[in-house]
TrEMBL record:
SUPFAM superfamilies attached to this UniProt entry: Uracil-DNA glycosylase-like
UniProt-listed Pfam families: UDG
Name of the protein in question: Type-4 uracil-DNA glycosylase
Species whose genome carries this gene: Paenibacillus thiaminolyticus
Catalytic activity annotation: Hydrolyzes single-stranded DNA or mismatched double-stranded DNA and polynucleotides, releasing free uracil
């Protein structure tokens, strides 16, 4: 990784996203010429979309889900009548793993306190976990995405919908349909929330 300096132990003193973003800029070091990708969206969004780690387009722009996966995600959000700008979009890992490799378990463990605080600050009602890294970070270290997807999990009062990562569905029509279904379930649950 990725972690330049150790994650500060007094993270709990951080009370807003700007301050948390500043911590990330100190502790997570992107590859030369790349940018850190912090979450983006409304500070108290009711829906949080959680991905794995930035890809090349994200590391270039400093924004989550702006490449091919992001376009596919946007398409399904639109079909489900969810405005992306109303959702908070972030990743477990905030800098692109070299060569787009899968994040290591130790990297996920290191990044988790920051992610948990980010979630606490947003305080969403619903989280959609996109892919196994997000599901394993938040729900269950041993979860298998093929078994758990589509099933609501409740944690600390937040409803979590595990589903496939958009990059996993490009060449798989069946998975694409399931990702769509799960995003529709999240949209239904969002509609049922108190105004
Ligand atoms: N894949 C992710 O998991 N996150 C992004 O931001 C882009 C692609």
């Amino acid at each position: 990784m990725i972690a330049g300096t150790a994650i500060p132990e007094d993270l709990h003193t951080i009370g807003n996203l700007d301050a948390l973003h500043a911590v990330c800029e100190r502790v997570f070091v992107p590859e030369p010429g790349e940018r850190l990708v912090f979450g983006e969206g409304p500070e108290h969004a009711r829906l949080l979309l959680l991905g794995e780690a930035p890809g090349a387009n994200e590391a270039e722009t400093g924004r989550p889900f702006v490449g091919n996966s992001g376009r596919l995600l946007n398409k399904y959000l639109q079909k489900a009548d969810i405005l992306r700008e109303n959702a908070y979009v972030t990743n477990v890992i905030k800098v692109r793993p070299p060569g787009n490799r899968k994040p290591k378990t130790s990297e996920v463990t290191d990044a988790l306190p920051i992610l948990l605080l980010e979630i606490e600050l947003i305080d969403p009602a619903i989280i959609v976990c996109l892919g196994s890294i997000a599901v394993q970070a938040l729900v269950d270290r041993k979860a298998k995405i093929t078994e758990i997807r589509g099933t609501w999990v409740e944690k600390d009062g937040i409803r979590i919908m595990p589903t496939y990562h958009p990059s996993a569905v490009f060449r798989d029509e069946q998975k694409r349909e399931l990702l769509k279904q799960d995003i529709f379930s999240a949209a239904e649950a969002l509609k049922k929330l108190e105004p």
